[in-house]
Amino acid sequence: NMFSLCxxxxxxxxxxxxxxxxxxxGASNEGEHSSPMVxxxxxxxxxxxxxxVEAIYLREAVVGGGGSASPDSTAQKIQKxxxxxxxxxxxxxxxxxSGTTDTYLSSSVERPFREAFKKLTGGKDLKTDGITQDELxxxxxxxxxxxxxxxxxxxxDPKSTPGLAGNVLGLDSDPSHANDVLFAMPPWHYxxxxxxxxxxxxxxxxxxxxxxxLGASFMNGHDILFD
Length: 227
Prior knowledge:
single chain; alpha+beta; 4-stranded antiparallel sheet; 3-stranded antiparallel sheet; 14 strands; 12% helix
Protein backbone atom coordinates (compact mmCIF):
# COMPACT_ATOMS: atom_id res chain seq x y z
CA ASN A 1 0.00 0.00 0.00
CA MET A 2 3.03 2.30 -0.12
CA PHE A 3 3.14 5.23 -2.56
CA SER A 4 4.70 8.67 -2.75
CA LEU A 5 3.61 12.02 -4.15
CA CYS A 6 6.04 14.73 -5.16
CA UNK A 7 4.18 17.86 -6.22
CA UNK A 8 5.90 20.33 -8.49
CA UNK A 9 4.62 23.76 -9.38
CA UNK A 10 4.65 25.76 -12.58
CA UNK A 11 3.59 29.39 -12.68
CA UNK A 12 2.90 29.16 -16.41
CA UNK A 13 0.65 26.95 -18.46
CA UNK A 14 0.80 25.32 -21.88
CA UNK A 15 -1.48 23.25 -24.12
CA UNK A 16 1.38 20.77 -24.23
CA UNK A 17 1.39 20.51 -20.44
CA UNK A 18 3.83 21.55 -17.75
CA UNK A 19 5.75 19.58 -15.12
CA UNK A 20 3.60 19.16 -12.00
CA UNK A 21 5.43 16.43 -10.10
CA UNK A 22 5.31 12.65 -9.91
CA UNK A 23 3.62 9.72 -8.24
CA UNK A 24 5.58 6.57 -7.36
CA UNK A 25 3.89 3.28 -6.51
CA GLY A 26 5.52 0.96 -3.98
CA ALA A 27 8.30 3.31 -2.87
CA SER A 28 9.59 6.84 -3.18
CA ASN A 29 11.69 8.17 -6.05
CA GLU A 30 15.10 8.69 -4.46
CA GLY A 31 16.37 10.27 -7.67
CA GLU A 32 14.32 13.36 -6.82
CA HIS A 33 15.71 13.70 -3.29
CA SER A 34 18.27 16.29 -2.21
CA SER A 35 18.44 14.86 1.34
CA PRO A 36 17.56 11.55 3.07
CA MET A 37 13.92 10.62 3.63
CA VAL A 38 12.82 11.36 7.21
CA UNK A 39 9.74 9.87 8.83
CA UNK A 40 6.90 11.36 10.86
CA UNK A 41 4.58 9.30 13.04
CA UNK A 42 1.15 8.36 11.68
CA UNK A 43 -0.97 8.63 14.82
CA UNK A 44 -3.93 6.67 13.41
CA UNK A 45 -3.97 2.94 12.70
CA UNK A 46 -6.57 3.37 9.96
CA UNK A 47 -8.31 6.10 8.02
CA UNK A 48 -6.61 9.42 7.40
CA UNK A 49 -2.83 9.79 7.40
CA UNK A 50 -2.55 11.84 10.59
CA UNK A 51 0.53 13.58 12.02
CA UNK A 52 1.15 15.17 15.41
CA VAL A 53 2.21 18.82 15.27
CA GLU A 54 4.70 19.31 18.08
CA ALA A 55 5.57 22.93 17.27
CA ILE A 56 5.32 25.64 14.61
CA TYR A 57 7.93 28.32 13.92
CA LEU A 58 8.49 31.27 11.59
CA ARG A 59 11.93 31.77 10.06
CA GLU A 60 12.88 35.15 8.71
CA ALA A 61 13.49 35.61 5.00
CA VAL A 62 16.89 36.31 3.48
CA VAL A 63 17.63 37.66 0.02
CA GLY A 64 17.92 34.75 -2.40
CA GLY A 65 17.08 32.26 0.34
CA GLY A 66 15.74 28.80 -0.35
CA GLY A 67 12.74 27.01 1.05
CA SER A 68 14.31 24.01 2.76
CA ALA A 69 14.09 23.08 6.43
CA SER A 70 17.76 23.92 6.88
CA PRO A 71 18.46 27.64 7.39
CA ASP A 72 20.27 29.65 4.74
CA SER A 73 22.36 31.30 7.45
CA THR A 74 23.10 30.66 11.11
CA ALA A 75 22.15 34.30 11.68
CA GLN A 76 18.55 33.77 10.55
CA LYS A 77 16.04 34.48 13.29
CA ILE A 78 13.47 31.83 14.17
CA GLN A 79 10.36 32.74 16.13
CA LYS A 80 8.46 29.95 17.89
CA UNK A 81 4.67 30.29 17.77
CA UNK A 82 2.98 29.81 21.11
CA UNK A 83 0.51 27.12 20.03
CA UNK A 84 -1.67 24.99 22.28
CA UNK A 85 -0.86 21.49 21.05
CA UNK A 86 -3.99 19.89 22.47
CA UNK A 87 -6.11 22.27 20.36
CA UNK A 88 -3.99 22.09 17.22
CA UNK A 89 -4.15 18.27 17.23
CA UNK A 90 -7.72 17.94 18.52
CA UNK A 91 -10.70 16.21 16.90
CA UNK A 92 -9.70 14.09 13.92
CA UNK A 93 -6.16 15.43 14.33
CA UNK A 94 -3.99 17.05 11.66
CA UNK A 95 -4.26 15.04 8.45
CA UNK A 96 -2.10 15.05 5.32
CA UNK A 97 -4.45 15.15 2.35
CA SER A 98 -3.33 15.61 -1.25
CA GLY A 99 -6.96 16.05 -2.31
CA THR A 100 -7.24 19.33 -0.40
CA THR A 101 -5.67 22.23 -2.28
CA ASP A 102 -5.02 24.58 0.64
CA THR A 103 -3.70 24.09 4.17
CA TYR A 104 -5.92 24.60 7.22
CA LEU A 105 -5.02 24.81 10.90
CA SER A 106 -6.99 25.27 14.10
CA SER A 107 -8.38 28.76 14.69
CA SER A 108 -6.46 28.70 17.99
CA VAL A 109 -3.26 29.24 15.98
CA GLU A 110 -4.25 32.55 14.37
CA ARG A 111 -3.64 34.96 17.23
CA PRO A 112 -0.21 33.61 18.30
CA PHE A 113 0.73 33.24 14.61
CA ARG A 114 -0.01 36.92 13.93
CA GLU A 115 1.84 37.95 17.09
CA ALA A 116 4.92 35.94 16.08
CA PHE A 117 4.71 37.32 12.53
CA LYS A 118 4.73 40.92 13.79
CA LYS A 119 7.60 40.21 16.17
CA LEU A 120 9.73 38.61 13.45
CA THR A 121 9.00 41.22 10.76
CA GLY A 122 9.43 44.34 12.87
CA GLY A 123 5.77 45.05 13.55
CA LYS A 124 4.26 44.27 10.14
CA ASP A 125 0.78 42.77 10.05
CA LEU A 126 0.11 39.50 8.24
CA LYS A 127 -1.49 40.15 4.85
CA THR A 128 -3.51 37.44 3.10
CA ASP A 129 -4.08 38.97 -0.34
CA GLY A 130 -2.88 41.73 -2.63
CA ILE A 131 0.73 40.84 -1.83
CA THR A 132 3.38 42.14 -4.22
CA GLN A 133 6.43 40.16 -5.32
CA ASP A 134 8.66 42.39 -3.18
CA GLU A 135 6.47 41.77 -0.13
CA LEU A 136 6.43 38.02 -0.78
CA UNK A 137 10.23 37.81 -0.81
CA UNK A 138 10.30 39.36 2.67
CA UNK A 139 7.75 36.96 4.18
CA UNK A 140 8.94 34.22 6.55
CA UNK A 141 9.04 30.48 5.98
CA UNK A 142 6.69 28.44 8.18
CA UNK A 143 8.39 25.48 9.89
CA UNK A 144 6.31 22.58 11.18
CA UNK A 145 7.83 20.22 13.73
CA UNK A 146 6.11 16.83 13.42
CA UNK A 147 6.52 14.02 15.92
CA UNK A 148 9.01 11.45 14.65
CA UNK A 149 8.03 7.91 13.72
CA UNK A 150 10.77 6.77 16.11
CA UNK A 151 12.26 9.33 18.48
CA UNK A 152 15.00 6.93 19.59
CA UNK A 153 16.14 5.86 16.10
CA UNK A 154 19.91 6.10 15.53
CA UNK A 155 20.00 5.36 11.79
CA UNK A 156 20.36 9.06 10.93
CA ASP A 157 22.37 11.62 12.87
CA PRO A 158 19.91 14.45 13.61
CA LYS A 159 22.71 16.99 13.93
CA SER A 160 23.78 16.46 10.32
CA THR A 161 20.52 15.40 8.63
CA PRO A 162 18.45 18.11 6.92
CA GLY A 163 14.79 17.80 7.76
CA LEU A 164 15.30 16.75 11.38
CA ALA A 165 14.73 19.11 14.31
CA GLY A 166 18.19 18.37 15.72
CA ASN A 167 19.76 19.79 12.55
CA VAL A 168 18.75 23.36 13.51
CA LEU A 169 20.72 24.52 16.54
CA GLY A 170 18.58 25.63 19.47
CA LEU A 171 15.26 24.89 17.76
CA ASP A 172 13.95 22.47 20.41
CA SER A 173 15.67 22.26 23.79
CA ASP A 174 14.36 18.73 24.41
CA PRO A 175 17.03 16.29 23.12
CA SER A 176 14.43 13.52 22.87
CA HIS A 177 12.81 15.51 20.03
CA ALA A 178 15.94 15.65 17.85
CA ASN A 179 14.50 13.06 15.42
CA ASP A 180 11.26 15.01 14.92
CA VAL A 181 10.62 15.97 11.31
CA LEU A 182 11.07 19.62 10.40
CA PHE A 183 8.91 20.56 7.43
CA ALA A 184 9.39 23.87 5.61
CA MET A 185 6.60 25.81 3.92
CA PRO A 186 8.11 28.87 2.19
CA PRO A 187 5.91 31.82 1.21
CA TRP A 188 5.73 30.81 -2.46
CA HIS A 189 4.03 27.61 -1.26
CA TYR A 190 1.55 29.13 1.18
CA UNK A 191 0.79 31.94 -1.27
CA UNK A 192 -0.44 31.67 -4.87
CA UNK A 193 0.21 34.08 -7.72
CA UNK A 194 -2.68 35.70 -9.59
CA UNK A 195 -1.59 36.43 -13.16
CA UNK A 196 -4.43 38.91 -13.74
CA UNK A 197 -3.83 41.05 -10.65
CA UNK A 198 -0.06 40.42 -10.56
CA UNK A 199 -0.28 39.78 -6.81
CA UNK A 200 -0.16 36.86 -4.38
CA UNK A 201 -2.91 35.52 -2.10
CA UNK A 202 -2.85 33.01 0.73
CA UNK A 203 -3.44 29.25 0.49
CA UNK A 204 -2.94 28.91 4.25
CA UNK A 205 -5.85 29.33 6.65
CA UNK A 206 -6.33 29.26 10.42
CA UNK A 207 -10.07 28.74 10.79
CA UNK A 208 -10.68 25.09 11.73
CA UNK A 209 -12.73 24.35 14.84
CA UNK A 210 -10.47 21.40 15.61
CA UNK A 211 -7.56 19.61 14.01
CA UNK A 212 -6.34 20.63 10.58
CA UNK A 213 -5.53 19.63 7.01
CA LEU A 214 -2.05 19.80 5.51
CA GLY A 215 -3.04 19.98 1.86
CA ALA A 216 -1.30 20.27 -1.50
CA SER A 217 0.09 23.73 -0.69
CA PHE A 218 1.89 22.13 2.28
CA MET A 219 3.10 19.11 0.30
CA ASN A 220 4.42 21.13 -2.62
CA GLY A 221 8.14 20.70 -3.27
CA HIS A 222 8.47 17.61 -1.07
CA ASP A 223 8.35 13.89 -1.83
CA ILE A 224 5.74 12.58 0.63
CA LEU A 225 5.78 8.81 1.24
CA PHE A 226 2.49 7.32 2.46
CA ASP A 227 2.79 3.91 4.11
